[in-house]
Amino acid sequence: AKRAKVKVDFADLDLLDQCIAFVNRGNDAVDISGWVVESLAGCKQFQFPDNSLLKPNEEARIWSGKAAVDRQPAQRDFVWTTDPVWNHLADTAILKDQSGSHITSIHAEAAPVTRTHRMSILLFDLQQEHVVVVNNHHEPCCLTDWTVRTSHSDASYRFPHGFTLTPGGLVRIWTGKRARDIQEDESNLIWTTDTIFNTNVDICSLVDDRGNVVSEAIQELSKPGLLTPQANLSVSELDLLNGCVEIRNNCAESVGMNGWTLASRSEDSFTFPATYQLQPFGVVRVWAGPYSKHKDNRNTDLHWTDKTVWADAEDFAALRDPNGRLVSKIFVDERARHISGHRSANSDL
Fold first, then answer.
1. What are phi and psi for residue 181, nearest 5 degrees?
2. CB pairs under 8 A, 24+ apart, for 137-143?
3. How many helices (H) and strands (E) does the chain have?
4. β-pairing verdict for 188-192 and 170-175
5. What is the C-alpha radius of gyration for the chain, rounded to an integer number of angstroms?
6. At a CB cut-off of 8 Å and minimum separation 6, what does 185 contact?
7. DSSP string spanning 39-78?
8. In the beta sheet, which residues pair with residue 277?
9. pLDDT by position in tens, the chain (length 349)
10. How far apart are CA 335 and CA 56, in angstroms?
11. Which of 130, 110, 111, 108 is nearest to 121 (CA)?
């Protein structure tokens, strides 16, 4: 006799939230005890426990990663592991029955990460009265309706319509007397010939076309006419998914990081090793979470913790000097990221 057709199908694979949903589209309940869900990229398997019954039109989910930490197993929610399972860029989920026969599969790919948090203020120079904005992404970024603002005044600079920063490219935005001698081109833009910034201490913000502050930098002159190397450090990138923060030294002098801290919105804090020196124009990455293991070579990569520090969707990284003064901050919003899923047709059993 021909076996009844099983209509269990995947409903969604969310790579960001580490959750896969499946549904029984048939008219009969299905016993899925012993069935297996497999991550093709991660080569990991989840086996449904005994007495797992999926009723008609019932949807259930399997959770992994940080979302599974405080989640209790329930009738429609299964906890796989608190470690990440699905590759955050692309993965395929395969469902097999207790005999190993293929039931269905779904493929998901993350859309390119929003370029918002890939833009940052590389340098804020009160003495030379200009700001340097850099595109850290591998794709061009159109800066139409983006602005640069200062905390000292209500003045703001709006990028020209259609202005695009190439991958790895940077642009200087000039103010004050120096702006009078600058010829505008793709690397130099004129804000105003007036003095905009506070000549002793000021904060500069980069704001995207949605009004979100993407990057902030603080600059302070310890003495008139003298720039401190410490003020030329900047947080250039925050990767929420991989748990990595990148910090750059934008000056020609090394900076001792004794007492410096890096903090998230949740106030988790990393203190740099007392003897650590960030070399002239050097870059250091600070790692936290599951991907941080073996990321401590003391020169370019520092290990913070194996625990997850950064929020999945939105967070910031704030760099402070030994006096607790904010030097640089970068904001990340992953909510513009979307997941697209493609499922294969069910097999007839």
1. -100, 5
2. 137/167, 138/167, 138/168, 139/112, 139/115, 139/167, 140/164, 140/165, 140/166, 140/167, 141/115, 141/165, 143/119
3. 0, 32
4. parallel
5. 25
6. none
7. ETTTTEEEEPPTT-EE-TT-EEEEEEGGGGSSPPP-SSEE
8. 256
9. 444 466 888 888 888 778 899 999 888 999 999 999 998 876 789 999 998 999 998 988 999 887 777 776 666 789 998 888 887 667 789 999 999 888 889 888 765 444 345 788 888 888 788 899 988 777 888 999 999 998 877 789 999 999 999 887 889 999 998 898 889 998 999 999 988 888 777 888 899 888 888 888 777 665 443 344 455 788 888 888 888 899 988 776 788 899 999 999 887 899 999 999 998 878 899 999 877 766 666 678 898 988 888 887 788 888 888 888 778 888 877 654 433 333 333 333 3
10. 33
11. 130
Residue found under tokens 């076309």: 209
Buried b (16+ CB within 10 A) or exposed e, 254-291: ebebeebebbbeeeeebebeeeebbeeeeebbbbbbbb
pTM over 0.85: no
Beta pairing class for 301-305 and 102-110: unpaired
Q: Could you give the angle at the alpha carbon of 28 between the alpha carbons of 23 and 33, nearest 5°?
A: 65
Contact between 66 and 122 (Cβ < 8 Å): no
Q: Which two tokens stand for residue 70?
A: 């405080």
Q: Two tokens at 170?
A: 């940077």
Q: How many residues does the chain have?
A: 349
Q: Which two tokens stand for residue 290?
A: 């599951």
How many whole angstroms separate alpha carbon 346 and alpha carbon 11? Answer: 12
